[in-house]
Amino acid sequence: MKEMELKYGCNPNQKPSRVFMESGELPIEVLNGRPGYINLLDALNGIQLVRELKAASGLPSATSFKHVSPAGAAVGREMSDILKKIYWVDDLGELSPLACAYARARGADRMSSYGDFIALSDVCDVPTAKMIQREVSDGVIAPDYTDEALEILKTKRKGTYNIIKFDESYKPAPIERKQVYGVTFEQGRNELDINNALLENIVTDNKNIPDDKKLDLLISLITLKSTQSNSVCYVKDGQAIGIGAGQQSRIHCTRLAGQKADNWWLRQYPKVMALPFKDDVRRADRDNAIDVYIGDEYEDVLRDGEWQRIFTERPEPLTREEKKEWLSKNTDVALGSDAFFPFGDNIERAHKSGVRYIAQPGGSIRDDNVIETCNKYDIAMAFTGIRLFHH
Predict the structure, then answer these.
(1) Residue 184 CB coordination number (10 Å)
(2) Strand 61-66 with 69-75, pairing
(3) Residue 376, SS3?
(4) pTM, to two decimals
(5) Among all residues, which ones are annotated catalytic?
(6) Stretch 296-306: mean pLDDT, rounded?
């Protein structure tokens, strides 16, 4: 198939709409549903991301995309019982590596992943399909699906769930184009290979970056390559735990991503994991209640008339002191930035979220201040020399 008509573009008033190939066939086959313009943007950006993650790690990979940026991305490492519980997958039995990858990708920022488009690096198996089946999602793209997994996914959204098969032999043209306001832009595709060679120029006093942390840094950089800029990505143990996308200011990226990383860690606080939810409260509503409970406006879910709707009894608030003490235990976090840090304030904020390893391009006139701030906290930082803007 060379062309596919779409219902409309980004918005219902933007008609006509289609995707097409100037030469050759579309690298996708719609097995179920009717994907829209934004769905396909997420699908094609997402499949590119997971293919690069798999190439760098050798592990099955997954991403959860929303509005042309990843809400989460991860490789298929086993999960602790705590992670299984906070990701609401502890009742699914044995999970495949691919299912672990998606659970991690979805679990990084469950609020943002609501209604996501999923990309998988490997053939979708039954454990992964069962996980996807019960989440609110717009669709999935993968190289293929087992017969049973495909039948499971076809039951979603009353049979309208978007299921796309991607042709793994596809290689895009080296030149890409897009139009803005009737003007055509053209550039070479960003085919930059993200590998360990980018991490060799360690400019801080601490020059020790263990192999597993190098992989975390590569995951952050690969994720940033597909994230709307400006962007910053925090990674721990093979998964993004906080992504700040599309901010005009670098420090705002760092703060946004850091707050998401903090929320991910606070979800694991015993007091949060023990919240007495009513049995009939849906997972999405639990996610929202947890997000409010661990934030500054916790009274919104603890006030009379509200807590009774969600909890069997009124929980005690999570105090500022408790949060501070718990957050201090999150360590060995890796951080990537798609462009240089202009000020040391980014490092100060990153340090608060447990960052010990950083990869960024370097090249700021204030590099000395950034390096000095890293040295103050014994952070190891590599200058990659490459920028990863994505628009």
Answers:
(1) 8
(2) antiparallel
(3) helix
(4) 0.96
(5) 66-67, 230, 391
(6) 94
Residues 261 and 275 in one domain: no
pLDDT at 300: 95
From residue 307, give the alpha-carbon distance in Å to each of 193, 271, 276, 304.
50, 16, 10, 6
Helix (H) or strand (E) holding 212: helix 211-225
Q: Which residues, at least 6 apart from 193, have a Cβ–Cβ distance to it below 8 Å?
A: none
Strand partners for 175: 188
**Residues 17 and 120 placed together within one structural domain of the fold:** yes
Q: In the numeric block, which tokens belong to residue 84? A: 């299984």
Burial code (b: 16+ CB inside 10 Å, e: under 16) for 2-19 equals eebebeeeeeeeeeebeb
**CB neighbours of residue 30 within 10 Å:** 17
Containing domain of residue 343, as a range? 195-266+327-383
Q: What is the pLDDT of residues 357-383, one digit of tens each?
A: 999 999 999 999 999 999 999 999 999
Contact 299, 289 (CB under 8 A): no
To the nearest whole number, what is the mean pLDDT of the chain? 96
Residue 68 in domain: yes
Structure tokens at 315: 């929980």
DSSP per-residue codes, 192-210? ----GGGG--B-SS-----
Long-range pairs for 344-347 at CB < 8 Å and ≥24 separation?
344/369, 344/370, 344/372, 344/373, 345/251, 346/232, 346/250, 346/251, 346/254, 346/370, 347/373, 347/374, 347/377, 347/379
